[in-house]
Amino acid sequence: MAWSWPNIPGHKNDGRAVAFGLALLILVFAPIPIHRSAGWVWDLGAALGFWALAGLVLQMLPCRDGIAFQRHRFLAPWVLALCLVHALWFLIVDPITRFDLRNGGAVHLWAALAGLAVLAGLILQARLPERFRLYPTYRAFRSAHRHAALCAIAAVAIHVLFSGYYVAGAGLIAVLPLILVALLRPAWAGLSPSCLGLGGAAATLIFVLMRLP
């Protein structure tokens, strides 16, 4: 029988799971000052970026069983897609971003591109059947995978911190992953990608709506 999320034993795919995912993602956005807005177009692009950040942190949690591993593998390209949409959004709608990149770019822009490149390489390598030819053992592969993921997270953290608009100050950026790590460890175990996607989409919409004049 083909594998699918609803067929996983013990998998929860009900309204409570959706509600929990939504509440958690709202908490992720809670430390970000509501009064900071640059218009709904800019706010929507930023919200997509914070949604991608939440997905990256979620992917960093250890996979201690088959269900968590399958979800990790399934979500990886979707997290990458969110990062790409976030980047393309600003390249399309914001002439200042395009101007900065053409003229050398600010630190946070190059950090974003570096993080995106590392993440894309990380996911591509992990999904290639030939990956184990590059490493003597599975432990070596996991170690390299983990260190590359940490580099991607560090680049994204620099991007968020040095952009300096929605998140101003090192203390505030630390709150975002800490909220995730503190609250989701046991509770996310049974959530499906559809629940995570619905919660993230709703939180993104709330991020934009609560900044409208």
From TrEMBL:
Organism: Paracoccus homiensis
Lineage: superkingdom: Bacteria
Keyword Repeat: no
Coiled coil segments of this chain: none
Record keyword Transmembrane present: yes
Designated name of the protein: Ferric reductase like transmembrane component
Record's keyword terms, sorted: Membrane, Transmembrane, Transmembrane helix
Residues spanning the membrane: 17-34, 40-62, 74-93, 105-128, 149-182, 188-210
